[in-house]
TrEMBL record:
InterPro entries the UniProt entry points to: Fido, Fido-like_dom_sf, Fido_containing
Record-annotated Fido domain positions: 175-315
PROSITE patterns on file: FIDO
Protein name (Swiss-Prot/TrEMBL): Fic/DOC family protein
Superkingdom assignment: Bacteria
Transmembrane segments: none
Length: 412
């Protein structure tokens, strides 16, 4: 009956269960309405098989726990979730320059656009009702949208902070506990019932809504599995394979009390930022497609549906950034060389409103910059200070209250 397609089977041995088959054609129309998988996303036969199973009611799907062999069987640079041909395709789509640039050059160049796109799209996957325009107003001008819940505003702002955290620390950021915990903390700020869970390994069991999957519940087990996960992630040489590996295994482990998928979406961008590839912004990714793809990982430890969605989503993201890539000016080498000094000086000026800004800048430049470069570096700092506004304060480690006090002190 399986061979004839009349039934499907899941599990092995005594755990094997049989279900009435649903044809691939039916999979795209099952659970009709807003809860169906979008037909415009191309799927492989393997992905359609996953949909057949996932589209069944939860009571017809087998309860499963965390499968250690799923992570254990993955051998970095030997196992490949993304085939070599698929990786080549992704590299062609995501390439931003022929020159060898310092890590993070491209993500910094498009940061303003990236903050809006990724903050909005990732939040939208969590049910956030902010529009893209609302998100832009919030990020660029600090204006919260009318009629929106505070939790939605907080979610957007947390994404902005977390993205800036990655981009501005790209030289030191890697897949380790420090980066992951602080990334989660930025995304979770003021959103969890217990603030102590921000940036901390989960201390209790969790259930996954609309899923038969039950993650690990013991903190010690979660800690051990996370260490293995991070060690393997750091060994992966290809940025896309590394990115996709994090999208698969971080939500599957569920190391945090909540906000695991958001953390994985931003973590998946870290290798792309570092390699100066186009970011994966998740623009136009339907929530129902993303949730089904992750269910395929949770309940079947199969990645094909998420892989097909990843490819479609990345192509969509790169299409949005083609015009930016074509028009993007080359980074100013002087600004790149003195980037950290410029930020430190701006922060020093703003946090000391009692001092004359120009005198403060001149003194700092005279102490740290060679005489031949002093005029240009000073001009750069003055220009940065002139453009300073609420939407870029985190870049300099400044709070709005510090900025407002400085503005009032200098009649701005």
């Amino acid at each position: 009956m399986i061979e004839c397609g009349q039934i499907t089977a899941s599990g092995e041995g005594r755990a094997r269960r049989y279900f009435g088959a649903i044809t691939p054609a039916d999979a795209s129309t099952l659970d009709t309405g807003t809860d169906s998988f979008p037909s415009f996303i191309p799927l492989s036969a393997d992905s359609r098989d996953i949909l057949v199973y996932i589209n069944q009611p939860t009571e017809a799907r087998k309860p499963v726990g965390y499968q250690r062999d799923f992570l254990g069987a993955y051998q970095p640079n030997e196992t490949s979730y993304l085939s070599e041909s698929l990786r080549r395709q992704l590299h062609r789509m995501g390439k931003t320059t022929d020159a060898v640039e310092p890590a993070g050059t491209y993500s910094r160049a498009v940061l303003n656009r990236l903050l809006i796109d990724l903050s909005w799209a990732s939040s939208h996957l969590e049910g956030n009702t902010y529009s893209r325009l609302d998100t832009r107003e919030l990020i660029e001008h600090g204006m919260a949208a009318r009629g929106k819940a505070a939790i939605e505003t907080q979610m957007i702002l947390n994404h902005k902070t977390a993205i800036e955290l990655l981009v501005e620390n790209i030289e030191s950021a890697e897949f380790n506990r420090y980066t992951l915990m602080n990334l989660h903390s930025a995304l979770a700020e003021n959103l969890l019932p217990n603030p102590a869970d921000e940036g901390r390994i989960r201390q209790h069991a969790v259930d996954i809504g609309k899923s038969t999957y039950r993650p690990l519940s013991t903190p010690h087990q979660i800690e051990d599995a996370l260490e293995v996960l991070l060690n393997k992630a750091n060994q992966i040489s290809d940025p896309f394979e590394q990115s996709f590996f994090m999208m698969v295994h971080l939500p599957y482990l569920q190391p945090f009390a909540d906000i695991n998928k958001r953390t994985s979406r931003l973590a998946a961008n870290l290798p792309l930022f570092r390699a100066n590839l186009c970011p994966l912004t998740f623009l136009d990714v339907p929530e129902q497609a993303y949730s089904r793809a992750t269910l395929g990982v949770y309940e079947m430890t199969r990645v094909e549906l998420l892989r097909d969605l990843y490819l479609w989503a990345y192509e969509r993201s790169t299409q949005e950034y083609v015009a930016i890539k074509q028009d993007l000016a080359e980074p100013d080498p002087l600004r790149l060389t003195w980037r950290d000094f410029i930020k430190t000086t701006i922060r020093e000026v703003v946090t000391h409103p009692e001092l004359d800004p120009l005198a403060c800048i001149q003194r700092a430049v005279a102490e740290h910059v060679s005489e031949t470069e002093q005029p240009e570096v000073q001009a750069l700092i003055v220009e940065e200070l002139r453009r300073l506004q609420e939407g870029v304060l985190a870049r300099y480690g400044l709070r709005p209250s510090e900025f407002n006090l400085w503005k009032s002190s200098h009649g701005n």
